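Task 17 of the worksheet. Students: predict the tertiary structure of the chain below and write it out as structure tokens. Keep your answer in the requested format; marks are given for formatting as well as content.
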Amino acid sequence: MLGAAVQQRSTATPATRLDALRLLAEPHTTTSLARALHVSNATTSSHAAVLRSAGMATTTRTGRSFTHQRTALGTLVAGGWPP
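Model answer:
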């Protein structure tokens, strides 16, 4: 069930959400994560919202920027990647 947020089909492929989760081992702004994934900021925000609702990521706001980072649960689901 925990992996359902990673595998849930929406406007993006499950692999993209898993890629986002893996990249969130380090903090990323919405824009930097979107660039790394080669998707729009809106798509990235959607991924972050799903991961956040599943408890796999957190988001903090600083001014106009939103910074995302995965949680311990997100690390477990991502398989501890990167090693």
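Marker's comment: The chain has a mean pLDDT of 85. The longest helix spans residues 41-53.
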